[in-house]
Amino acid sequence: MKFKELFPVICLALLIISDFFLLSANTQKSTALAQLAVTRQQVQDLQSQLANATNAAAFADATELTQLRADNQDLPRLRTQIKQLQAENHKLAELLGRTRTAAEQQQEQVEEMEAENEQAAEDQQAAAQAAALTTVKQREGCIANLRLIYAAKQAWALEKNKTDNDVPTEQDLLPYIKGGVFPTCPGGGVYTIGAVGQPPTCSISGHVLPTQ
Questions:
Q1: Tens digit of pLDDT for each residue in 119-132?
Q2: pTM over 0.90, yes/no
């Protein structure tokens, strides 16, 4: 009797427990379905991103291919331009070489001209010094001759009892000059014997017997 009374209670308890498990299972199912929906959405998003990436890659490949084709088509023109530039560079290099050679030759000519000018200046200076020295020697030689002529005049006047106003000739003075030859001016001047009381003179300026 007692088991029969407890059986409905046990069945009710079992029913309640089964409902609890069913509710829990339904809740878990709902959660799983929600997660599945999220997962499906993520998969769709990934598929969309993959499609976009694939399309972008295909577009980039197509663009790059188009560019490569354009570059390949333009390659002969670029090669021609490169050859032209190389030819121009070669011509410029040759022109530069010739210009450098011409500049070096001009520099050598300038240096030679400078050396020649320096040598000419030195030669001119040497010639001027030589001329000046010659002029001095000629003047000194002429003055020595004038002294000789003056001494010969004094000796002639003393021996011949001549006065200061008497004028001797070259022949008159030869006996009183060593070697018996009348002197001549080293510079080509012309002597004037003059009177006994006057010093002889030379036609060249500066060839003057100093006053005693």
A1: 888 888 988 898 89
A2: no
Q: Specify which residues 191 forms β-bridges with.
A: 202
Residue 52 CA: distances (Å) to CA of 42, 45, 56, 166: 15, 10, 6, 145
Q: Which residue bears the tokens 């070489």?
A: 97
> What amino acid occupies position 181?
V
Evaluated on CA atoms 177, 178, 180, 184, the torsion sign reads negative
So what's the pLDDT on residue 93? 81
Query: 135 near 175, Cβ under 8 Å?
Result: no
Pull the structure tokens for residue 17: 């427990």
Q: What is the per-residue DSSP string for 28-91?
A: HHHHHHHHHHHHHHHHHHHHHHHHHHHHHHHHHHHHHHHHHHHHHHHHHHHHHHHHHHHHHHHH
pLDDT in tens, 93-118: 888 788 888 878 888 888 888 888 88
User: How far is residue 153's CA from residue 167's CA, in Å, rounded to a whole number?
Assistant: 9
